[in-house]
Amino acid sequence: MTTDRTRIRIGSAPDSWGVWFPDDPRQVPWSRFLDEVAGAGYGWIELGPYGYLPTDPARLAAETARRGLRVSAGTVFTGLHHGPAVWDTTWEHVSDVAALTRASGAGHLVVIPAFWRDDKTGEVLEDATLTAGQWRDLAAQTERLAREVRERYGLRIVVHPHADTHIDSEENVARFLDATDPDLVSLCLDTGHYAYCGGDSGKLIETYGERIGYLHLKQVDPAVLAQVRAEELPFGPAVARGVMCEPPAGLPALEPVLAAAAALDVDLFAIVEQDMYPCDPDRPRPIAERTRAFLRSCGV
Protein backbone atom coordinates (compact mmCIF):
# COMPACT_ATOMS: atom_id res chain seq x y z
CA MET A 1 0.00 0.00 0.00
CA THR A 2 1.38 3.39 -0.97
CA THR A 3 1.50 6.30 1.42
CA ASP A 4 2.91 8.75 -1.12
CA ARG A 5 1.13 12.05 -0.53
CA THR A 6 2.48 13.95 -3.52
CA ARG A 7 -0.76 13.27 -5.41
CA ILE A 8 -2.72 15.30 -2.83
CA ARG A 9 -2.91 18.96 -3.85
CA ILE A 10 -3.61 21.42 -1.06
CA GLY A 11 -5.69 24.55 -1.53
CA SER A 12 -8.03 26.89 0.30
CA ALA A 13 -11.30 28.65 -0.40
CA PRO A 14 -13.23 31.86 0.24
CA ASP A 15 -15.05 29.93 2.96
CA SER A 16 -11.87 30.00 5.06
CA TRP A 17 -12.02 33.80 4.88
CA GLY A 18 -15.59 33.91 6.19
CA VAL A 19 -17.17 34.19 2.73
CA TRP A 20 -20.57 32.59 2.26
CA PHE A 21 -22.34 35.01 -0.07
CA PRO A 22 -21.60 36.79 -3.37
CA ASP A 23 -21.88 40.16 -1.68
CA ASP A 24 -21.97 40.89 2.05
CA PRO A 25 -20.53 43.90 3.91
CA ARG A 26 -19.17 41.61 6.65
CA GLN A 27 -16.98 39.72 4.17
CA VAL A 28 -13.49 40.65 3.02
CA PRO A 29 -13.24 42.06 -0.53
CA TRP A 30 -12.33 39.46 -3.13
CA SER A 31 -9.01 41.14 -3.92
CA ARG A 32 -7.94 40.89 -0.30
CA PHE A 33 -8.90 37.22 -0.22
CA LEU A 34 -6.76 36.52 -3.28
CA ASP A 35 -3.82 38.46 -1.88
CA GLU A 36 -4.00 36.71 1.48
CA VAL A 37 -4.63 33.16 0.29
CA ALA A 38 -1.58 33.40 -1.97
CA GLY A 39 0.46 35.01 0.78
CA ALA A 40 -0.50 32.23 3.19
CA GLY A 41 1.13 29.65 0.92
CA TYR A 42 -1.72 28.15 -1.07
CA GLY A 43 -1.52 27.60 -4.81
CA TRP A 44 -5.09 26.40 -5.42
CA ILE A 45 -8.46 27.99 -4.67
CA GLU A 46 -12.14 27.35 -5.23
CA LEU A 47 -14.41 29.97 -6.75
CA GLY A 48 -16.69 30.20 -3.71
CA PRO A 49 -20.20 31.63 -4.08
CA TYR A 50 -20.80 32.62 -7.70
CA GLY A 51 -20.34 36.36 -8.05
CA TYR A 52 -17.88 36.83 -5.19
CA LEU A 53 -14.82 36.52 -7.42
CA PRO A 54 -14.94 38.22 -10.84
CA THR A 55 -17.21 36.30 -13.22
CA ASP A 56 -15.51 37.61 -16.35
CA PRO A 57 -13.16 34.73 -17.26
CA ALA A 58 -10.40 36.96 -18.62
CA ARG A 59 -10.35 39.17 -15.55
CA LEU A 60 -10.47 36.20 -13.17
CA ALA A 61 -7.63 34.53 -15.06
CA ALA A 62 -5.52 37.67 -14.86
CA GLU A 63 -6.19 38.21 -11.15
CA THR A 64 -5.39 34.63 -10.19
CA ALA A 65 -2.38 34.27 -12.47
CA ARG A 66 -0.61 37.34 -11.18
CA ARG A 67 -0.85 35.90 -7.68
CA GLY A 68 0.29 32.43 -8.71
CA LEU A 69 -3.12 30.88 -8.04
CA ARG A 70 -5.06 28.21 -9.92
CA VAL A 71 -8.72 27.19 -9.59
CA SER A 72 -9.63 23.65 -8.53
CA ALA A 73 -13.45 23.79 -8.57
CA GLY A 74 -16.65 25.78 -8.64
CA THR A 75 -19.61 25.22 -6.30
CA VAL A 76 -23.36 24.93 -6.89
CA PHE A 77 -26.35 24.41 -4.60
CA THR A 78 -29.12 22.10 -5.77
CA GLY A 79 -32.45 20.68 -4.62
CA LEU A 80 -32.52 17.68 -6.93
CA HIS A 81 -34.68 15.56 -4.63
CA HIS A 82 -37.58 17.71 -5.87
CA GLY A 83 -37.32 15.90 -9.19
CA PRO A 84 -37.62 17.04 -12.83
CA ALA A 85 -39.77 20.04 -11.86
CA VAL A 86 -36.71 21.94 -10.60
CA TRP A 87 -34.39 20.98 -13.46
CA ASP A 88 -34.66 24.18 -15.51
CA THR A 89 -34.00 26.54 -12.60
CA THR A 90 -31.22 24.27 -11.36
CA TRP A 91 -29.53 24.16 -14.75
CA GLU A 92 -29.73 27.94 -15.14
CA HIS A 93 -27.62 28.30 -12.00
CA VAL A 94 -25.33 25.36 -12.72
CA SER A 95 -24.53 26.37 -16.28
CA ASP A 96 -23.25 29.80 -15.25
CA VAL A 97 -20.97 28.34 -12.58
CA ALA A 98 -19.85 25.46 -14.79
CA ALA A 99 -18.92 27.80 -17.64
CA LEU A 100 -16.74 29.94 -15.37
CA THR A 101 -15.24 26.83 -13.76
CA ARG A 102 -14.26 25.40 -17.14
CA ALA A 103 -12.90 28.74 -18.31
CA SER A 104 -10.76 28.83 -15.16
CA GLY A 105 -9.13 25.54 -16.09
CA ALA A 106 -10.69 23.59 -13.23
CA GLY A 107 -12.02 20.05 -13.58
CA HIS A 108 -14.51 19.71 -10.72
CA LEU A 109 -17.89 21.06 -9.75
CA VAL A 110 -18.79 20.71 -6.06
CA VAL A 111 -22.53 20.02 -5.67
CA ILE A 112 -24.11 20.85 -2.30
CA PRO A 113 -27.64 19.59 -1.58
CA ALA A 114 -30.38 21.98 -0.50
CA PHE A 115 -30.80 22.72 3.22
CA TRP A 116 -33.91 21.33 4.89
CA ARG A 117 -33.87 24.22 7.37
CA ASP A 118 -32.71 27.80 6.93
CA ASP A 119 -29.08 28.08 7.95
CA LYS A 120 -29.60 31.53 9.49
CA THR A 121 -33.04 31.49 11.09
CA GLY A 122 -33.47 27.77 11.70
CA GLU A 123 -36.87 27.84 9.98
CA VAL A 124 -37.79 24.32 8.91
CA LEU A 125 -38.24 24.42 5.15
CA GLU A 126 -39.15 20.78 4.59
CA ASP A 127 -38.98 17.38 6.26
CA ALA A 128 -35.48 16.37 7.34
CA THR A 129 -36.11 12.84 6.02
CA LEU A 130 -36.63 12.05 2.34
CA THR A 131 -39.33 9.70 1.11
CA ALA A 132 -38.39 6.72 -1.05
CA GLY A 133 -39.61 8.64 -4.10
CA GLN A 134 -37.49 11.64 -3.21
CA TRP A 135 -34.42 9.41 -2.87
CA ARG A 136 -35.09 8.05 -6.36
CA ASP A 137 -35.44 11.58 -7.72
CA LEU A 138 -32.26 12.67 -5.95
CA ALA A 139 -30.27 9.81 -7.48
CA ALA A 140 -31.72 10.13 -10.96
CA GLN A 141 -31.43 13.91 -11.17
CA THR A 142 -27.89 13.87 -9.78
CA GLU A 143 -26.87 11.39 -12.47
CA ARG A 144 -28.56 13.60 -15.07
CA LEU A 145 -26.66 16.61 -13.76
CA ALA A 146 -23.39 14.68 -13.87
CA ARG A 147 -23.95 13.66 -17.51
CA GLU A 148 -24.91 17.16 -18.62
CA VAL A 149 -22.01 18.83 -16.81
CA ARG A 150 -19.54 16.30 -18.22
CA GLU A 151 -20.84 16.44 -21.77
CA ARG A 152 -21.26 20.20 -22.00
CA TYR A 153 -18.41 21.44 -19.83
CA GLY A 154 -16.00 18.56 -19.37
CA LEU A 155 -16.31 18.74 -15.57
CA ARG A 156 -16.80 16.00 -12.99
CA ILE A 157 -19.31 16.61 -10.24
CA VAL A 158 -18.41 15.79 -6.65
CA VAL A 159 -21.37 15.75 -4.26
CA HIS A 160 -20.72 17.33 -0.86
CA PRO A 161 -22.40 15.77 2.20
CA HIS A 162 -23.40 18.75 4.33
CA ALA A 163 -24.96 19.49 7.70
CA ASP A 164 -28.68 20.27 7.62
CA THR A 165 -29.12 18.60 4.22
CA HIS A 166 -30.44 15.18 3.30
CA ILE A 167 -26.98 13.83 2.46
CA ASP A 168 -25.36 14.08 5.86
CA SER A 169 -24.96 11.02 8.09
CA GLU A 170 -23.13 7.74 7.43
CA GLU A 171 -26.46 6.08 6.65
CA ASN A 172 -27.60 8.75 4.19
CA VAL A 173 -24.23 9.10 2.48
CA ALA A 174 -24.07 5.32 1.98
CA ARG A 175 -27.64 5.27 0.66
CA PHE A 176 -26.83 8.03 -1.81
CA LEU A 177 -23.64 6.37 -3.02
CA ASP A 178 -25.31 2.98 -3.38
CA ALA A 179 -28.10 4.57 -5.45
CA THR A 180 -25.87 6.42 -7.93
CA ASP A 181 -23.60 5.36 -10.79
CA PRO A 182 -19.93 5.46 -9.70
CA ASP A 183 -18.89 6.33 -13.25
CA LEU A 184 -20.91 9.54 -12.98
CA VAL A 185 -21.11 10.56 -9.34
CA SER A 186 -18.20 11.02 -6.96
CA LEU A 187 -18.06 12.45 -3.46
CA CYS A 188 -16.52 15.59 -2.05
CA LEU A 189 -15.76 14.34 1.44
CA ASP A 190 -15.81 17.26 3.85
CA THR A 191 -14.17 15.90 6.99
CA GLY A 192 -15.74 18.52 9.24
CA HIS A 193 -19.30 18.20 7.97
CA TYR A 194 -19.08 14.42 8.09
CA ALA A 195 -17.86 14.52 11.71
CA TYR A 196 -20.54 17.12 12.54
CA CYS A 197 -23.12 14.56 11.37
CA GLY A 198 -21.53 11.65 13.25
CA GLY A 199 -19.50 10.10 10.42
CA ASP A 200 -16.00 8.63 10.37
CA SER A 201 -14.00 9.98 7.41
CA GLY A 202 -11.32 7.31 7.59
CA LYS A 203 -13.92 4.55 7.53
CA LEU A 204 -15.71 6.18 4.59
CA ILE A 205 -12.49 6.38 2.57
CA GLU A 206 -11.73 2.72 3.32
CA THR A 207 -15.26 1.59 2.44
CA TYR A 208 -16.00 3.81 -0.56
CA GLY A 209 -12.51 4.78 -1.66
CA GLU A 210 -13.29 4.59 -5.37
CA ARG A 211 -16.06 7.16 -4.88
CA ILE A 212 -13.88 9.80 -3.20
CA GLY A 213 -13.16 12.39 -5.86
CA TYR A 214 -12.30 15.43 -3.79
CA LEU A 215 -11.64 16.47 -0.17
CA HIS A 216 -12.52 19.41 2.02
CA LEU A 217 -10.32 19.54 5.11
CA LYS A 218 -12.15 20.80 8.17
CA GLN A 219 -12.44 20.02 11.87
CA VAL A 220 -15.18 20.35 14.48
CA ASP A 221 -14.78 21.38 18.09
CA PRO A 222 -16.32 18.46 20.02
CA ALA A 223 -17.34 20.59 23.00
CA VAL A 224 -19.15 23.12 20.83
CA LEU A 225 -20.68 20.32 18.76
CA ALA A 226 -22.14 18.81 21.93
CA GLN A 227 -23.81 22.16 22.69
CA VAL A 228 -25.08 22.41 19.12
CA ARG A 229 -26.66 18.99 19.33
CA ALA A 230 -28.15 19.62 22.76
CA GLU A 231 -29.71 22.90 21.60
CA GLU A 232 -30.59 21.59 18.11
CA LEU A 233 -28.95 24.63 16.55
CA PRO A 234 -29.07 25.10 12.78
CA PHE A 235 -25.77 25.15 10.95
CA GLY A 236 -25.37 28.93 10.60
CA PRO A 237 -25.61 29.74 14.30
CA ALA A 238 -23.43 26.69 15.04
CA VAL A 239 -20.67 28.15 12.85
CA ALA A 240 -21.05 31.56 14.50
CA ARG A 241 -20.52 29.81 17.84
CA GLY A 242 -17.26 28.29 16.57
CA VAL A 243 -18.23 24.68 15.88
CA MET A 244 -15.65 24.53 13.07
CA CYS A 245 -12.21 25.07 14.57
CA GLU A 246 -8.61 25.54 13.56
CA PRO A 247 -6.68 22.30 13.07
CA PRO A 248 -5.25 20.37 14.78
CA ALA A 249 -7.49 21.30 17.74
CA GLY A 250 -10.60 19.42 16.62
CA LEU A 251 -11.95 16.25 15.06
CA PRO A 252 -11.30 14.26 12.99
CA ALA A 253 -7.53 14.00 13.21
CA LEU A 254 -6.43 14.98 9.72
CA GLU A 255 -3.16 13.06 9.48
CA PRO A 256 -4.88 9.62 9.41
CA VAL A 257 -7.45 10.93 6.93
CA LEU A 258 -4.69 12.15 4.64
CA ALA A 259 -2.89 8.82 5.01
CA ALA A 260 -6.05 6.95 4.01
CA ALA A 261 -6.55 9.30 1.07
CA ALA A 262 -2.93 8.86 -0.03
CA ALA A 263 -3.40 5.09 0.04
CA LEU A 264 -5.99 5.44 -2.74
CA ASP A 265 -3.08 6.42 -5.01
CA VAL A 266 -5.14 8.86 -7.08
CA ASP A 267 -4.85 12.58 -7.72
CA LEU A 268 -6.95 14.42 -5.15
CA PHE A 269 -7.53 18.02 -4.25
CA ALA A 270 -7.69 18.65 -0.50
CA ILE A 271 -9.14 22.11 0.01
CA VAL A 272 -9.00 23.70 3.45
CA GLU A 273 -12.34 25.08 4.59
CA GLN A 274 -12.84 26.49 8.05
CA ASP A 275 -16.35 27.90 8.20
CA MET A 276 -16.08 31.25 9.95
CA TYR A 277 -18.98 33.38 8.74
CA PRO A 278 -19.15 36.04 10.03
CA CYS A 279 -15.65 36.87 11.27
CA ASP A 280 -13.26 39.74 11.89
CA PRO A 281 -11.48 40.45 8.57
CA ASP A 282 -8.06 40.21 10.21
CA ARG A 283 -8.69 36.75 11.62
CA PRO A 284 -8.47 34.40 8.60
CA ARG A 285 -4.93 34.91 7.30
CA PRO A 286 -3.00 33.92 10.47
CA ILE A 287 -5.20 30.82 10.78
CA ALA A 288 -4.60 30.00 7.12
CA GLU A 289 -0.85 30.30 7.58
CA ARG A 290 -0.83 28.08 10.67
CA THR A 291 -3.08 25.54 8.94
CA ARG A 292 -0.79 25.38 5.92
CA ALA A 293 2.19 24.79 8.20
CA PHE A 294 0.31 22.06 10.05
CA LEU A 295 -0.59 20.29 6.80
CA ARG A 296 3.04 20.40 5.70
CA SER A 297 3.85 18.60 8.95
CA CYS A 298 1.39 15.93 7.81
CA GLY A 299 3.35 15.50 4.60
CA VAL A 300 1.13 17.43 2.19
Question: What are the key terms here?
Answer:
single chain; eight-stranded parallel sheet; alpha/beta
Q: What do you see in this structure?
A:
The protein has helices spanning 30-39, 57-65, 87-103, 132-153, 170-179, 191-196, 201-207, 222-231, 235-240, 254-262, 284-297; strands at residues 8-12, 44-46, 70-78, 108-113, 156-159, 186-190, 212-217, 219-220, 244-245, 268-272. By secondary structure, it is an alpha/beta fold. The strands form two sheets. The protein has an eight-stranded parallel β-sheet with strand order 1-10-7-6-5-4-3-2. A two-stranded antiparallel sheet has the order 8-9. Strand 4, helix 4 and strand 5 (156-159) form a beta-alpha-beta unit. The longest helix has 22 residues, at 132-153. The radius of gyration is 18 Å and the shape is globular. It starts with 7 loop residues before the first strand and ends with a helix.
